Amino acid sequence: MPRVTVDGTTFYYQQVGAGPDVVLLHGISGNLAIWPLINLMPVLAADFRVTAYDLRGHGYSDTPPSGYTSADMAGDLVNIQRALGLGPMYVLGHSFGGVVALHAAVLYPEAIAGLVLSDPYFPGLRHLETRVGQWSGWQEYKEQANRAGLEVTEEDWFDVGQLFKQAAHLPPERHEMFRKELGLAAMERLTRLAATTCGDDVKAVAGLTEERIRSVRHPSIALYGENSPFLATCRYLEQNLANCRAVLVPDAKHRAHEENPLAYVALVHKHLRELAGLAPLQGRGGAA
Amino acid sequence: MDGRRGLGIKEVDTTMTQEQILNDVASILRNFNGREYSGDIGLDTRFFGDLGLASIDAVVLGETLEAHYGRKLPFHLFMADLGRRAVRDIPLGELVAFLHNHLNISTTIG
């Protein structure tokens, strides 16, 4: 099982292909399995050396008690880059993985070649997202959480830490509800993060202020679900970053890779090729 | 077989049955990365619902099985198939059939 240790923390990773470096970052409470489940890595491996790893506290990586801000995790990213001998990276980050990717571009501009920001929401741009509680997908999310024995309100979308704590302290009579709805593995994931500073850290601006977000000049794609709750952020990135273009994934919300995997893989492949200056794919759409 | 070894082709037991493969998988899952499982493990045992594992465990199990059999196997096909399912669970029988198929294909193509 491939692992790399940086600053005393060991990360589980997978790597395939050859070419310019692409690094894939999953979101909070996920793991690198989201990429093989949509067959993204073999598709990208035709043109790139693709590295995916489990963020700290996730999957098969270590779980340090602290160090979960986007600045900390951007540090992990460039440390892993150095340890694995990767060149300047095109980074695809989903949700908080996108925040980490953009923060790395701010803190370590030479390390980053380009960005695909897949539905991130930035604590430093929270003022843009005033309507997430009214988002059409919210009710569905809330109902699922309720079926799992968790209690969420419209204000809670911003506070994953309280979900971690609820899962960690779920009354025994609700365990079966949770298991049926989300599975035991999900409870382990959330409980594990409840023992860390992750919940508070991911809410922190951590230096990634609006001004710094606007300063990023790397070629970037803001890749959002067409029904994402965070389209205000998508528009903001396109309008305020020097080299950022918005691309919408049809029939998708916040988790476009799951909601429309074929379109997602094709769009990621197409736009990574464009960012890397490779000729457009002819006729096969990129998702073959 | 000696000639095959001389060509650097790994020896494969072409007579391996699904039952033997299930035994291999079960012995790995009995104590998988620190998680012990003492219940019955059979072809109908579901990876997520019964064993309480997650998709990341399937990725790591794939690597563990590659190490066990000493060869690369196309687990990316298995994972992509899993990802396409509306109900994301899979009985071990399907994993065993996948392994049986690919371990035996590999013997014919080296």
- Count of alpha/pi helices of chain A: 13
Uncertain parts of chain A: none
How many beta-strand segments of chain A? 8
Q: Could you estimate the helical fraction of the residues of chain A in percent?
A: 25-40%
Biggest interface and residues each: A-B, 23 and 21 residues
Q: What is the name of the CATH architecture of the largest domain in chain A?
A: 3-Layer(aba) Sandwich
Biggest sheet of chain A: strands, sense, closure?
A: 8 strands, mixed
How many distinct folded domains of chain A?
Answer: 2
Cα gyration radius of chain A (Å): 18 Å
Helical content of chain B stands at: 40-55%
Mean pLDDT of chain B, rounded to whole units? 84
Radius of gyration of chain B: 15 Å
Strand order of the largest sheet of chain A: 1-2-4-3-5-6-7-8
Description:
The complex is a heterodimer of chains A (288) and B (110). Chain A is of the alpha/beta class and 288 residues long. Chain A has two domains: 3-130 and 204-275, Alpha/Beta hydrolase fold, catalytic domain (Rossmann fold, 3-Layer(aba) Sandwich), CATH 3.40.50.1820; 136-201, no CATH class. Chain A is 40% helix and 17% strand. An eight-stranded mixed beta sheet of chain A has the order 1-2-4-3-5-6-7-8, sandwiched between helices. In chain A, helix 3 (70-84) crosses helix 4 (96-107), helix 6 packs across helix 8 (184-194) and helix 7 (172-182) packs across helix 8. The longest helix of chain A is centred in the first third of the chain and has 15 residues, at 70-84. The model of chain A has no long low-confidence stretch (mean pLDDT 93). Chain B contains five helices and two strands; from the N terminus they run ααββααα. Chain B has helices at 2-6, 18-30, 55-69, 75-83, 92-109; strands at residues 31-32, 35-36. The radius of gyration of chain B is 15 Å and the shape is globular. In chain B, 25% of the residues are buried. Chains A and B meet through helix 1 and helix 8 of A and helix 3 and helix 4 of B.
